[in-house]
């Protein structure tokens, strides 16, 4: 059974499915997994609710929005919270409560139901000093930007020793000055 | 052949720490035929094993034992358990350092005289002058292979430098070049030239950059007079009834307690661990800690007035390619109070990889204002500000009241608040740096706050009078004749220049003094 993630309570599965396929599916929840049909990846949640994981992915993007970066990098970046939640009930509570609070503040459609980034960010500004927000943001600094596969998107070339450094590979190739 | 010395051998000089100060002192003494044991808390990792990856390298080499911070500085909020970036490994922070090697200016040895009394600052003249140090500076520059000294050519300018230089020219700065760097511009001293890999802060995998790990230490070991014992974390220095130090207690690599006897003990653990060790060595005879009759141990903690300026251009720069810090403007290093502050600062090129840029550009920052900066990472240029900060008594390394390390010793608690002079200087430097980039067409600039301290200074300061400081002009403690301080914690004031050349210079000079005193049998 596949449901399309909308983050909105009160809609039947059938209705969700219908809407989702019409919208060209974003994140789908199937059992305990969050699936991305567009990007062809899935993230199995083990401790957190799959809806929570899906919201975390949106939250991660709202904190560090890079439009050229696909969802899977954000999914990898927040995965550690699911793992930690499995070992530490206090962490699980922190995350579940934090997401529930976001949904509450967002009103009827929940956090992901808010269509504009600005609307979501204005809620985040209210909670940016909370331990929940700081745990998510702090984890992302390394969790997101330390993914080697992400670096080429920003042009960063990473390790260079094995290629003999840049002495013959453009350390001084600037031309526009 | 490294010489293994017995734990009960009380003829050895024991040096605590193998970085710029300790590693240099160890080699210098060994060259004179003196028996030396260096106890180093960290492991020995040779340069082949360094990692071209910012976080992995940090995990491999940095000092990660718990520390706390307090005071008004932003580092306290952004990095509450990481007041400083220091290395815990053989070679100390000379594995991660960038290599900028500048002599102090003459007036910087006499700040109280030249700047006058500055309210809230604990300024003091050094008990020595530039003339005293000049012959030793020359030796240090030769030893370290500093470019633009000893007929060593400067490094070639990388992309980041070219942008920096174009801006400096537009602003009319006169002294701008690729720096005096302890990085080989060509083969020298059995080490190869810089390959422009761009990972100076992660340890140079080519050995082109000077580090005690692969220069001083193996040279000392080759004399048969130096033993380096990695994984040896010193917890306490002990003394006899007469007040002379006799031995040090350390946890060995298996965590077992050992005691090494010593004729002389030299503390070179960098400016957080050195005062911590003296304070943790308190005894019935010295209840406030060793060498602390002045009450100055741990005080006057300095970290340089720093900050960075990054800029985005409309075309690529690729600033991470090549040497991390080979570029300098020295025009603002003068003392010119008409700018609204005493002392001066240097501007030096700096590049960070994407992972560190994300962590340090605006710690705690988020949202599009932050991410659109990183979106143009490949079009960024960057520089670092390093200026003289004011020594203040209340800026201090203290022992934590409650938290202890795994050996049961109180951890260090590092307090720092900017002096108004520091703030005025930083703001001036931000403006100048941003103007440099604006002059070459920057579309956006970022005045970036200080990182965890890479320059840690002043916590066992040098003074003429025993009541004003901890050590005399030889780094010998005023209170205990056979106890020395051999790192940057000796600095009376910080000057505008990066500190390591001066640390090495003082260590070479101290070695001469120790050898002299030993042969005169006065210690
Ligand atoms: C990223 C970076 C870039 C830098 N760039 C420059 C630059 O361009 N120019 C410049 O001049 N300076 C630079 N520095 C600063 C420079 O590295 C330090 O000033 C210098 O290494 C300090 O020398 P030290 O001997 O005081 O201490 P360190 O070199 O830090 O050595 C101290 C050693 O003591 C050991 N130790 C500490 N406590 C104990 C104990 N209790 N028992 C046993 N061992 C102990 C430590 O593990 C360490 O190995 C940079 C630093 C960093 C982090
Ligand atoms: S840029 Fe040069 S000095 Fe720096 S790490 Fe690479 S080879 Fe070594």
From TrEMBL, chain A:
**Highest taxon above the source species:** Bacteria
Instruction: Give the protein's recorded name.
Output: Gluconate 2-dehydrogenase subunit 3 family protein
TrEMBL record, chain B:
Under InterPro entries, the record lists: FAD/NAD-bd_sf, GMC_OxRdtase_N, GMC_OxRtase_C
Question: What keywords were assigned to this record?
Answer: FAD, Flavoprotein, Oxidoreductase
Pfam families linked: GMC_oxred_C (PF05199), GMC_oxred_N (PF00732)
- Glucose-methanol-choline oxidoreductase C-terminal domain: which residues? 391-507
- Domain Glucose-methanol-choline oxidoreductase N-terminal as annotated: residue spans: 87-305
Entry superkingdom? Bacteria
The family assignment reads: Belongs to the GMC oxidoreductase family.
Name of the protein: GMC family oxidoreductase
Q: Which organism is it from?
A: Aminobacter carboxidus
